Amino acid sequence: MRKRETTATKSSEVNAVSGSSEGNEAAEVKRHRKRVQRRAAKLKAEADAKLPQKLSPTPSHRLWGFAAFVIVLSASAGGLVVWQEHVESARMRLDEYLEPFTRDMNIPQLNTTMLNEHVTYVKDYFAPEDVRPGKDLRIEGYVPKHPIIIVPGFVTSGLELWQGKDCSDGNFRNKIWGSANMGLQFTLHTNCWLEHLSLDPETGMDPPGIKLRAALGLEAVDYFVPGYLVWAKLIEALGDMGYDSNMLATETYDWRLSTPNMEKRDAYFTRLRVRIELTHSIGGIKVVVVSHSWGDNVFRNFLHWVEQDDPDWAEKHIHAYANIAGPVLGVPKSISALLSGESRDTADLGWISRILSDRFIPRKARTSLFRSWGSSIGMLPVGGPGIWGNHTWSPEDTPKMQKDGVSYGPMIIYREVDEEATERENNASIISRVHSLIPKYMGGPSDQGLHLLTNETVMLNVDETMELLIEAGGPNFKKHVQSWGAIHADPCSERGDKGSAKRYFFNPLKCPLPKAPSLAIYCMYGVGSPVERSFRYLKMTTPKAKEQAKSHPEDVDNEKTGWTINRDEHTPDTGVDTGILVSDGDGTVPLISTGLMCKHPQGWRGKRLNPHGVRIASREYQHEPTAAFKGYRGGPKASTHVEILANALLMTDILKIAAGEVLDDSIISDIDGLAARIDLEADLRTDEPATC
């Protein structure tokens, strides 16, 4: 009897303990959930506190000027860093919020394996794609062999102030181009900043009392501003494979200068020669030179310059030359920059660009700035209608374009408008301007706000466009085009070379590659990204404008007279958007410029321009950008003009070349078909003028 009572008592005690345990577990779950919720709320408040606070309304135009600077240059380091921190904070909040559930809580029905898989998937989905080709190749057995010299490109390296006007006091040796401080300088002293970036309009050299010089070293080219990488990923990849500062260097330059003035003012060609010879002499190994963008024009001109003194120099010192995104035959967007101070970047903003950009850097000021840079002139399209097309034909035209009667051949198509009436319309209310944009986004052309003097359109091929540009630029500009460019429309400019050994600028269609049979040249460029190819312009014409252009050709006010891209022209069926017809390229340079000379049998694969058998290979990279939340520079498969420097496939190719491997063609585009439709020698003059 006692045993039964004892057993019953123990049973009731067990049940009581069990019930109490279950109740305690449920209470603990509730308390834990509340702790997690409080923790998540705290993390959210901390992350939100990092976000930029909304500024109070202010009439200060300088704040709008800073906004314009950010949009036009896409280089606001602070915004990029905060954005990156916000994404990282979101990922950390997700991890910290879910982690207690998967680790501490004991819920029988919870499938923790499945939850962990979902958490891992979400974290990986938001994680930036960070590839390290240098580490991968080192594991495979690749090691450094050839020293590397980097020749950077246009606008992507820093410029330091060595001498300036009173408005620049306190900025000695500060970067007024290529630093986070650049935005502050622009905001506080816009006119001063522009004055110091300009070159002398007559000489193309330093203006009186101002000296800017290139920042030196790898740190001058790795990042444009903090967060906006340029060469950083490639330098990192080279380091991962085993390179260090003894085998890797850069020779920076003032990218504003024409190539003749680079040697005349800074002895750049001489310094580059000494750098390569010294690097070669240390280990006795030939050098690999890697250039980007305008750096290709610089290095090819250097090769012609140095062989005047030693015809065998390239053969003795250069193993390979990697030309990344080089504008070998020029850039059509240089036309719009030099004619009206515009490009697709500003035209896409439509009337907003007039508020954000024109008010602080008027098109007249931008045009004058670009015309003072010899490099802008050096990037004008090379060759005539046989390459770029005529009024009805271009080698790039697609069958659909031919059927629709549209062609890339006309470089400019324009209509004349009434200047004063159009100016009144542009000063109308924002509401009326918004109404003028409605037809554009409904898929049709919009001429609202344009007071046409005639319905006729005028077509200009590449030669006629160059003649128009020279006329608009005035006498000094014409002189500079003849000395620093290679345009087909002007016999003096089209010459093979430009004179003495210190003033050479070479036409790639006329001057052969160096005497270096063991040299390999790689043309490496992106495809699949639209680029400016043809422009729809408005010509502002009134008696006042005509008189001003005739009496003061150097002082044409592009704000009220002259030329402007017709931003309202939008015809999706023909490919025209905001007044610009785009073709295939890398977002800046069209395929016809980056790829033609390397693949055409009359180009660098032919006997005339490659008499010594330099090895030529073309490497194309399809543009496949990553989602914005994974990387604000496009990711490891992006191949637009600057982003290609961080392209994983390109970095792998550069590393293999540096390790001594030989690469063959890798073609994605229709560059071979394009080459088959072009006669490179059709337009070349054989009777060059004796004097110019």
TrEMBL record:
<keyword id="KW-0812">Transmembrane</keyword>
<feature type="transmembrane region" description="Helical">
    <location>
        <begin position="63"/>
        <end position="83"/>
    </location>
</feature>
<dbReference type="InterPro" id="IPR029058">
    <property type="entry name" value="AB_hydrolase_fold"/>
</dbReference>
<feature type="compositionally biased region" description="Basic residues">
    <location>
        <begin position="30"/>
        <end position="42"/>
    </location>
</feature>
<feature type="compositionally biased region" description="Polar residues">
    <location>
        <begin position="8"/>
        <end position="23"/>
    </location>
</feature>
<dbReference type="GO" id="GO:0006629">
    <property type="term" value="P:lipid metabolic process"/>
</dbReference>
<feature type="region of interest" description="Disordered">
    <location>
        <begin position="545"/>
        <end position="579"/>
    </location>
</feature>
<dbReference type="Pfam" id="PF02450">
    <property type="entry name" value="LCAT"/>
</dbReference>
<dbReference type="InterPro" id="IPR003386">
    <property type="entry name" value="LACT/PDAT_acylTrfase"/>
</dbReference>
<protein>
    <recommendedName>
        <fullName>Phospholipid:diacylglycerol acyltransferase</fullName>
    </recommendedName>
</protein>
<feature type="region of interest" description="Disordered">
    <location>
        <begin position="1"/>
        <end position="54"/>
    </location>
</feature>
<keyword id="KW-1133">Transmembrane helix</keyword>
<keyword id="KW-0472">Membrane</keyword>
<dbReference type="GO" id="GO:0008374">
    <property type="term" value="F:O-acyltransferase activity"/>
</dbReference>
<feature type="compositionally biased region" description="Basic and acidic residues">
    <location>
        <begin position="545"/>
        <end position="572"/>
    </location>
</feature>
